[in-house]
Write a structure and sequence with these properties.
The complex is a heterodimer of chains A (about 250) and B (about 210). Chain A is built from nine helices and two strands; from the N terminus they run ααββααααααα. Chain A has about 250 residues and is mainly α. Chain B is α/β, with parallel strands linked by helices and about 210 residues long. In chain B, about 20% of the residues lie in helices and about 30% in strands. Classes of the chains: A mainly alpha (about 250), B alpha/beta (about 210). At the A-B interface, helix 2, strand 1, strand 2, helix 5 and helix 6 of A face helix 1 and strand 7 of B. Strand 2 of chain A pairs parallel with strand 7 of chain B.
Chain lengths: ~250, ~210
């Protein structure tokens, strides 16, 4: 049965976005699982260690941080952004009056939501880690005070910055997914290229990859940092949207 | 049904995170360890040399505000003394000669600190005189294990950084933070012998 009802682009995007939030609720469950695994790895000993001492004194300090939590969450959003571009996920959109543009915009909306959820939970997870270690670690006398406390404004900054980084990882995953849809051979070639670049970079002293990371990491001005991330994300999304327009329907 | 399970899982995790947030800010933490291993980063060698120089030059007992941690006094008329290790860590002894007619041996333990938490944790020396043998037992090594935290990089995004600086790893070693050694005051006529493999003895500069 055909529908004669006209629907605006905004309405279609909103409908698909809300549908995706429900349909992909399992992705948020996987976020919970990924973060719990990261917390278990961190509390279980996947941490930095520093052994210092002399004949008189043997001092061992285990250093914990939310870094593993963030890395796992970044992988989660990149993989899920990739999954959104797969044919199976795209077919879901055909239940709606839709086109490539509204489908992509709804996906972008979903990724923004996922990035914010990831950024906020990573920051809160870092506090959870501190609480777990504080209450199970044999008392405050065994915990070094420096860096333990996190001010509320630092927590908010961490959540916002984390969300922006996750948005970037999500956009990169989405572009990679859109690229791979161009030809089946890219399923093998693209991961091989990424791994090859990583190995090549690791074998050389002057890592160009680090320079790319520094472009974002060393930006200390909030407005410039936001501008860098947002423009990069828009560039990646535009590329993905253009590529997805070239893929066959169905 | 599946959607319900998903919702419950997400809500439960959110609740745990919120509870943790409240626990972190509403319940004040007991006094945490006041020790920053990075506090003296970069000055380790200078500090160590400075501390060691003060000990080795025999200046510690001349400092007005520095009293020995423990002191032992023995009457001694002999012309020879053998210093032996009674166990523990290798004793570090600086020999200071006194007048020939003193007829006494005095041993003082000095500790020089930069004010660290483990000042009270260190074990003391013990000294005994048995005949012509001065038995010095070095302090037992103390082993301390602590938990520290790195600041999340997302929190530090807007702090000034330099290229390549992701984590500072230049810890300040605690070995550079204190000296624990003995001063042995002994008449200049008394000959000393010891096994250099067991005991580390420095003569006074003034000798």
């Amino acid at each position: 049965m055909m529908s004669l009802a006209r629907i605006s682009l905004g309405g279609a995007v909103k409908q698909q976005y809300l549908f995706k939030l429900r349909a992909y609720a399992n992705l948020f469950v996987s976020l919970v699982a990924v973060q719990i695994i990261a917390l278990l790895f961190t509390t279980g000993g996947m941490v930095g260690m520093s052994g210092m001492g002399s004949e008189y004194l043997d001092l061992e300090i285990r250093f914990y941080s939310g870094a593993i939590l963030f890395v796992f969450t970044a992988l989660w959003i990149a993989v899920n952004a990739f999954v959104l571009t797969l044919p199976l996920s795209r077919h879901v959109d055909f239940s709606f009056v839709t086109n490539r543009l509204s489908s992509n915009l709804a996906n972008f909306g979903f990724l923004v939501t996922a990035a914010v959820a990831g950024g906020v939970t990573v920051s809160l997870g870092s506090l959870l880690l501190r609480n777990v270690l504080y209450y199970t670690g044999g008392g405050s006398s065994l915990i070094i005070g420096a860096n333990f406390l996190v001010r509320p404004d630092e927590l908010l900054t961490g959540a916002a910055v984390g969300s922006l980084y996750l948005l970037l990882f999500g956009a990169a995953g989405y572009l990679a997914g859109a690229l791979i849809q161009l030809h089946r051979s890219l399923y093998v070639l693209l991961p091989a290229l990424v791994l090859g670049v990583l190995f090549y970079e690791a074998a050389h002293e002057q890592l160009r990859l680090l320079q790319v990371i520094n472009f974002y990491r060393l930006e200390a001005l909030p407005i410039l940092f936001i501008l860098k991330i947002v423009s990069s994300v828009l560039l990646l999304w535009s590329g993905a949207a253009l590529l997805s327009n070239r893929t066959e329907i169905g | 049904m599946q959607l319900k399970i998903y919702r419950y899982t997400i809500v439960a995790y959110g609740a745990v995170l919120l509870l943790s947030l409240m626990l972190f800010y509403l319940f004040p933490k007991e006094a945490l360890l006041d020790f920053d291993p990075r506090a003296g980063a970069g000055i380790e060698q200078d500090t160590y040399l400075e501390l060691h120089k003060k000990w080795a030059s025999g200046e510690l007992d001349r400092k007005d505000n520095l009293a020995p941690y423990r002191k032992w006094h023995f009457d001694y008329d002999g012309g020879h003394l053998r210093i032996v290790s009674g166990g523990g860590c290798t004793p570090q002894i600086l020999v200071k000669r006194t007048a020939a007619d003193t007829s006494a041996i005095t041993v003082a333990e000095y500790r020089l600190f930069r004010g660290d938490f483990f000042e009270d944790e260190l074990n003391p020396y013990t000294v005994d005189l048995v005949g012509e043998r001065l038995i010095v037992r070095g302090p037992e090594q103390i082993a301390l294990k602590f938990r520290g935290f790195e600041r999340d990089f997302t929190i530090d995004q807007f702090r000034e950084k330099r290229a390549g600086q992701y984590q500072e790893q230049d810890w300040d070693s605690p070995t550079s933070r204190f000296i624990q050694g003995l001063y042995l005051y002994i008449p200049e006529t008394v000959k000393i012998d010891y096994d250099p493999g067991d005991i580390f003895i420095l003569p006074d500069d003034e000798e």
